[in-house]
């Protein structure tokens, strides 16, 4: 699902014009982005949680040449799926 498809789904689900649904979707994404940039955890019950994971600098290998390279420290967004969503998706496999 793309962002425009999400806007369309929100628009039809709550019966509002597309431009209003776009404002709602953008506001939610902006709030989530601001929280993650402030190193805050986001938890949506039944869906999952977003958090920032910090990785320390390390030595890695170039897979093509096998030579050792220095990998800088970094931060990355991590998503952990909630139990309800995990269980609903798991029923699709049966």
What's the topology here?
Elements: H1 3-14, H2 18-37, E1 42-44, E2 48-55, E3 58-61, E4 68-71, E5 74-81, H3 83-90
Antiparallel strand pairs: 1-2, 2-5, 3-4
Helix pairs in contact: 1-2
User: Helix amount, in percent?
Assistant: 40-55%
Strands, total number: 5
Identify the CATH architecture. Irregular
CATH class: Few Secondary Structures
CA gyration radius, whole angstroms: 19 Å
Measured by DSSP, the beta-strand proportion falls in 25-35%
CATH superfamily: IHF-like DNA-binding proteins
The SSE order reads HHEEEEEH
The N- to C-terminal Cα distance equals 23 Å
Determine the number of helices (DSSP H or I, runs of at least 4 residues): 3
Strand numbers in spatial order across the main sheet = 1-2-5
Indicate the CATH topology.
HU Protein, Chain A
Structural class: alpha+beta
Shape: elongated
Mean pLDDT: 95
Major beta-sheet overview: 3 strands, antiparallel
Your description of this structure?
This protein is 43% helix and 29% strand. Helix 1 crosses helix 2. The mean pLDDT is 95. It starts with a helix and ends with a helix. The strands form 2 sheets. A 3-stranded antiparallel beta sheet has the order 1-2-5. The protein has a two-stranded antiparallel ribbon with strand order 3-4. The chain is α+β, with helices and mostly antiparallel strands. The chain has a single domain (3-93), classed as HU Protein, Chain A (Irregular). The chain has helices at residues 3-14, 18-37, 83-90, and strands at residues 42-44, 48-55, 58-61, 68-71, 74-81. The longest helix is centred in the first third of the chain and has 20 residues, at 18-37.
């Amino acid at each position: 699902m793309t962002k425009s498809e999400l806007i369309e789904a929100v628009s039809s689900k709550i019966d509002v014009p597309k431009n209003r649904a776009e404002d709602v979707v953008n506001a939610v994404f902006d709030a989530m982005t601001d929280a993650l940039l402030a190193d805050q955890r986001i938890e949506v019950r039944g869906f999952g949680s977003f958090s920032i994971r910090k990785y320390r600098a390390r030595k890695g290998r170039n897979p093509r040449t096998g030579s050792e390279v220095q990998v800088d420290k970094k931060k990355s967004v991590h998503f952990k799926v909630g139990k309800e969503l995990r269980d609903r998706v798991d029923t699709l496999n049966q």
